[in-house]
Write a structure and sequence with these properties.
four-stranded mixed sheet; alpha/beta
């Protein structure tokens, strides 16, 4: 293609799908307000295979952090979301979702810019009922347990971004296309 033609070709990105786990993980040190530091965190790590691909180092696991996720959605301009690893939450009685941070006597609804502030934040949780039914391998949204649908709807409503794809297992075809993203 001649240089003049190349310059006239417009490139436009109009869809940005954020890939998000149904819970939060972190590698390495540093603040992680929603980290689960008990047996449940270990259970999620084992069930979700949350170990570094290269080093095998265990990832830190925690509750879904909507403060951080809202920031990511805004900064990156998400037009849709793909939720992965929903099946890892199967069998957990009560799910916590971080909806804000408490910093001293202040409630933060925005992700702090300063690491020193984030280190001193404690999460403010909304508790949602879990589900005992298996979501593994489900390919139709209507077949999800009611509480799984409520969990997903809570995320969608909080972010004001549509969940378009839901992963319900490790296999490539263990997904729900809720809304075709392209």
């Amino acid at each position: 293609m001649p240089v003049q033609e190349q310059e006239s070709v417009q490139k436009k990105i109009n869809k940005i799908i954020g890939i998000v786990k149904a819970y939060t993980t972190r590698v390495g040190e540093g603040p992680f307000p929603t980290e689960i530091k008990d047996e449940l965190g270990e259970q999620i790590r084992q069930k979700g295979g949350e170990f570094g691909a290269t080093t095998g180092r265990p990832r830190r696991c925690g509750w879904l952090d909507l403060v951080g996720l809202k920031h990511s959605a805004r900064v990156n301009g998400f037009t849709g979301i793909a939720i992965t690893k929903l099946d890892i939450l199967d069998g957990i009685d009560k799910l916590k979702v971080c909806v804000g941070y408490k910093y001293g006597n202040t409630v933060l609804e925005e992700f702090p810019k300063e690491l020193e502030i984030l280190e001193k934040c404690t999460p403010i949780y909304e508790e949602l009922p879990g589900w005992n039914e298996s979501t593994k391998g489900i390919k139709d949204y209507d077949n999800l347990p009611d509480n799984a649908k409520k969990y997903l709807q809570f995320i969608e409503d909080s972010l004001k971004v549509k969940i378009q794809i839901i992963s319900t297992g490790q296999k490539r075809d263990e997904i729900i296309i809720k809304e075709f993203p392209l």
